[in-house]
Amino acid sequence: MVQEKQTEKDLIEKLIKGEIKFYQVEKYTDTETATTIRRKALEKIIGKELKHIGSYSIDMKQTASRNIEAPIGVQQVPLGIAGPIKIKGEIADGEYFIPLATTEGALVASVNRGCSIITASGGSKALVLKNAITRAPCIIVPDTEHAAKLVKWVNDNFEKIREVFRGEDPFLKLLDFQYWIIGRNVFLRLLADTADAMGMNMVTSASQAVCDFIQENLPWAETIALSGNMCVDKKPNALNFILGRGKTVQSEVVLKRNYIHDTLKTTAEKMVEVVYRKIYVGSGQAASYGFNSHVANIIAAMWIATGQDAAHIGESSMGMVTAEVVNDGDLYTSLTLPSMICGTIGGGCWLSQMQEALFIMDCGGGFIKGKPPGTLAKKFAEIACSAALAGEISLIAALAAGHLARAHEALGRGATARKRVEKIE
Q1: Contact predicate 361/98, CB 8 Å
Q2: C-alpha span between 341 and 315 (Å, rounded)
Q3: How far apart are the C-alpha atoms of 170 and 228, rounded to whole Å?
Q4: pLDDT for res 59
Q5: Mean pLDDT confidence for 281-288
Q6: CA-closest candidate to residue 195, choices 213, 169, 220
Q7: Catalytic residues
């Protein structure tokens, strides 16, 4: 409830003195004004103007209602464009530009180079192989016998549990469940289709309903944690790397040897050597969850650009690259991303600038007319995996040709720290 209005000056002074908390300002005024008041109070506290954070076109009322608390403005990230990249997927079919939000010099140029050679070679093929987001409650039972009874009960009553899980949401569907029994702990990993949404909020609420239903029928089965970390959410891990989570998607291409020579300045054989020694031997020795060069770079830049949950970058980038010489000098290469967590609606995806970035890839608007729910999110996944493959190809080739350091220096990464500081000042 909005209390009696006070002047901006009064509220700023009260914030500085600690008489009201930063998150309480909306009690006295509207969201846009509260954002300005918080920022001005913070400027006085730290003794530094925040003019860039305060410059934005975003609708703060929309953002504060579902994306952030106690807003003071916007942190902007440079947005570049790579492509077009030609893709032939189950859904994506054509040439697409790739929006990349990043502060890393050379990244957009590198992805663009990969897009160019993929397109020149006829394009990539892409396919979503699996599609299921998960939530895994931890349920405690009296003993092993009761743990087995719980699993059997869930299996016997799965259709009813599916109804409870769905509730009144027409776009939510429980597909299956997996389980692990460890001592008195039973981890139920619920696998769901959430259509075009990334879906974690939907699945969390639905999982709570399932846990309540279980406890109503089996009073000895107590939910200890709605998320028991076997989901596994927002953590690189072996389980999702092996079984998959969200969208398991693969992109592949055969690069023509003349383009490898003319554009990438190397050979298929040298690129395979880099993949073997760097990506397999090096990553194996490091016990890495993922065998790739820098998939996280592309995933992070696309996720920030399109309003995905940035915390999912870690598991979404656990990619595996393959490379083989074929056709006397061509290069077959692929990228498999087993746990891509993404969507095209909900969360940050609905913000205006994020929708604009999605529209650049023909993935905006929420749905594809005449197609089943979830089609647009699959299209986005096919494009994202292909863009990440482009980034892999470019970096692997740069390493094979010995051009990595030179490329970064040519694109401004060799500037001195002093010059950077002077620019900021």
Answers
A1: yes
A2: 8
A3: 26
A4: 87
A5: 96
A6: 169
A7: 104, 309, 408
> pLDDT at position 1, please?
47
pLDDT of 33 above 80: yes
Cα–Cα distance measured from residue 297 to residue 311, given in angstroms and rounded to the nearest whole number: 14
Residue 310 is given by DSSP the state G
pLDDT digits 0-9 by tens, 157-191: 999 999 999 999 999 999 999 999 999 999 999 99
Q: Which residues fall within 8 angstroms of residue 227, CB to CB, at 6 or more apart?
A: 135, 136, 137, 138, 204, 233
In CATH terms, the fold of domain 137-225 is Alpha-Beta Plaits (3.30.70)
CA-closest candidate to residue 187, choices 219, 228, 234: 228
Contacts of 183 (CB under 8 A, 6+ apart): none
User: Band of the pLDDT at 65, cuts 50, 70, 90?
Assistant: confident
pTM of the model: 0.92
The crossing angle, in degrees rounded to 10, of helices 200-217 and 144-156 is 110
Structure tokens at 297: 């770079």
Q: Which residue ranges make up each domain of the chain?
A: 8-66, 79-130+246-410, 137-225
One-letter amino acid for residue 135 of the chain? R
How many Cα atoms are found within 13 Å in the side-chain-facing hemisphere of 323?
Answer: 27
Average pLDDT score over residue span 332-359: 96
H or E element at residue 324: strand 320-326
Average pLDDT on 20-37 reads 94
Least confidently predicted of 90-99, 219-228, 344-353, 388-397? 344-353
Residue 312 is classified by DSSP as G
Please check whether residue 223 is in contact with residue 211, taking contact to mean a CB–CB distance below 8 angstroms: yes
**pLDDT at position 368, please?**
80
3-state helix, strand, coil in the chain (%, to 5): 45, 20, 35
CB atoms under 10 Å from CB of 160, counted, come to 11
Give the 3-state DSSP-derived string for 343-378, with helices as H, strands as E and coil as C: CCECHHHHCHHHHHHHHHCCCCCCCCCCCCCCHHHH
Interval 391-420: pLDDT, tens: 999 999 999 998 766 655 566 555 544 455
What whole-number distance in Å separates Cα of residue 336 and Cα of residue 126? 10
Say which DSSP state 141 is in.
Answer: -
According to DSSP, the β-strands at 330-340 and 246-255 are: antiparallel
28: enclosing H helix or E strand = none
Give the whole-angstrom CA distance, residue 182 versus residue 103. 44
Instruction: State how far the Cα of 36 lies from the Cα of 16, in Å rounded to an integer.
Output: 14
User: Does the domain formed by 79-130+246-410 have CATH 3.90.770.10?
Assistant: yes
Site of tokens 């405690």: 140
